[in-house]
Amino acid sequence: MGYKCYNCDEYVDVPDFTESVSEATICPNCNSDLHLEIYYRCTNCSYYYCNSFSNCPYCQKPREERVKLQEINYTQVTTKGDYGAALAFISEHEILGLDTEGNSLDPFENELLLVQIGDETHVYVFDYHWYRRLAKELFWMDSWRLWLLQNAKYDYKVLKQSLGVVLLNVFDTFLAERILTCGKERRNSLKELTEKYLQTEMDKTIREAFYTMTIETFDQKVTSEMLEYSARDVQVLPLIYRRQKWELQNNELTQLADLEFDVCKVVAEMELRGIYVNVWAWREIIVSCELQKKQVVDEISELLGGKSKATLTFVFEEPAINLNSTKVLKQIFSSFGITVSSTGDAELAKISHPLAELLRKYRKYEKQLSSFGESFLAMIRHETSRVHPSFQQIGADTGRFSCNKPNLQQIPVNEAYRKCFCAPQGRKIIACDYSQQELRILASLSGDPKFIKFYEDGVDLHTATASMMFNIPMEQVEKDKHRKIAKTINFGLAYGQGAKNLGETIGVDEQEATRMIDKYFAQFTYIRDWLEQAAVNAQRNGYLKTLLNRKRFYEIPEKWDRDYRRIMSSIGRKGKNTPIQGIGVDMIKMALVKIHQRLQEQKLDAFLINVVHDEIVVEASERDAVKVGKIVKEAMEEALSL
DNA sequence: GGGCCGAGCCAC
DNA sequence: AAACGTGGCTCGGCCC
Prior knowledge:
Layout: E1 2-4, E2 11-13, E3 39-41, E4 48-50, E5 74-76, H1 80-92, E6 95-102, E7 112-118, E8 123-126, H2 131-137, E9 146-149, H3 152-163, E10 170-172, H4 173-180, H5 190-198, H6 208-211, H7 215-221, H8 224-250, H9 254-273, E11 275-276, H10 279-305, H11 326-335, H12 345-350, H13 354-371, H14 374-377, E12 380-381, E13 386-387, E14 390-392, E15 402-404, H15 415-418, E16 427-433, H16 437-446, H17 449-457, H18 461-470, H19 479-493, H20 499-506, H21 510-523, H22 525-541, E17 543-545, E18 551-553, H23 564-601, E19 606-611, E20 615-621, H24 625-640
Parallel strand pairs: 5-8, 6-9, 9-10
Antiparallel strand pairs: 1-2, 3-4, 6-7, 7-8, 11-13, 12-13, 14-15, 16-20, 17-18, 19-20
Helix pairs in contact: 3-9, 4-8, 5-8, 9-23, 10-13, 16-22, 16-23, 18-19, 18-21, 20-21, 22-23, 23-24
The structure holds a DNA duplex.
């Protein structure tokens, strides 16, 4: 690939001119910047080229000029005439941008101030005088209309919460961009999308003015500038949509995008519903934790008190020593003549000193009290008496959800905590998870006949693996010896775990662990080969795909990078894991959509409340619980075949 | 006093 | 030298 310097017309050869090129290259002739980030993609042959060509260098098709934003053309609906014109305009268009403005990002506190609807030619802005009427008279759920939104989850929640309106077909430019660039730097804001696709600057600071307003002060405070910028947010949506749609089609990602857009609505509903927490039971855990923590702290004080002031001066400094500080802990250990590189649990376990043991206990209670203590309860909303977490639908680059405020995907497995997530009076919780989902995916992807047979025969997988590895009959497999090793390897597999780490987990040296791994792979050659091939593909191609074509990019370092080997081996491990995790994601997301649809179709008193990677949680009335359980099970099983 | 980052630890 | 994938939360500690 080559291009001309825009300054001196020198022709420069550049190895790979791709979408991801962002840094400017210097022209060897005149030293001016070549601005590689300005690129065009041929609409005929998909070839990328820079702005020094007026025709595609590959197929000669004339360059398609960048979309120029027209002057913003908007109407604030203030009269019946405006309203009528707006409704007529909307009913004529099957693809429309949609956005809302309010005074809070929290849908429970948000006061809806504006609803903007339109396309690149015209935007109608509805304020509180009109949007309620609009909500009644506009058929939002028209199945023939596609709503374009940036971060549809938010507006879906706001519209449902404020106006009781539900959107049917959505295209989310935020999610579309995430799908197109997964693994690359995240630049998904409307401002960044506008810069990328439309080469236009967008000022988002005006938005902040809405946060200072209420419906009462709206009429006095609103300015034409604010209206104009709210309209601008909608104007750009159809333009961005067209380019993203084209990119999605080219990458065979349309099906995946449609799935994610469906999931988006499910997630919005899930966040609005929230999940019930038994506050009383939760507080019981806190109280018992505090008691036990106090005991441990007392024991530690006693232990440290025995040291003389001379060697432990820092211990007696005010305020009392901070056991949460790793710096202080290291000092304390050194005063006992123990040097530690880390104060993590694995290190502490190796130290045979009463302090280490006490600290491990202290850590446990401290973690429970800080992350899962009163701060968790503070997130319960008084409006619903439930916690309403925020799910990031493609939070991880593998496609997995992430979750925060609170993160319901990291509740301790401890029964006491899990029991707190119960159903309110007269309702039931239904939770289903895939059994050994990722291992089964690996078995299927690799096609390993021995592994698959284990599953078909329904034997205990880890025992069978051990029997095969050590060449002994199943009956002779010892649980704490052979099976434990097999189980650890099975789980470490999908992550690309190495000998050193395996050795530490099962308590043997690195050499011995290497032998174990060799024995394992000697039996399961298909798995060995598949994992190796996945790693190579990731390193060679710079991306990997799942069965639904979900694509994750890897940034391949330059060969001369001094971290080249480290980064490449990391990409290899990610490559082994990504298809496995990613296919798990495809499955659970398909199941979510199916469950949501069927619960609605059958008008059951039930709704989704949580999803934890391979587990789906539904809350249902006692009356419908059995039916709902069946639906969840069936939907999850159907997704298995993808 | 807020932003940022690493350490440590919770989950799958 | 590191060598286990994907996240979020809280804390200490450093910087401005």
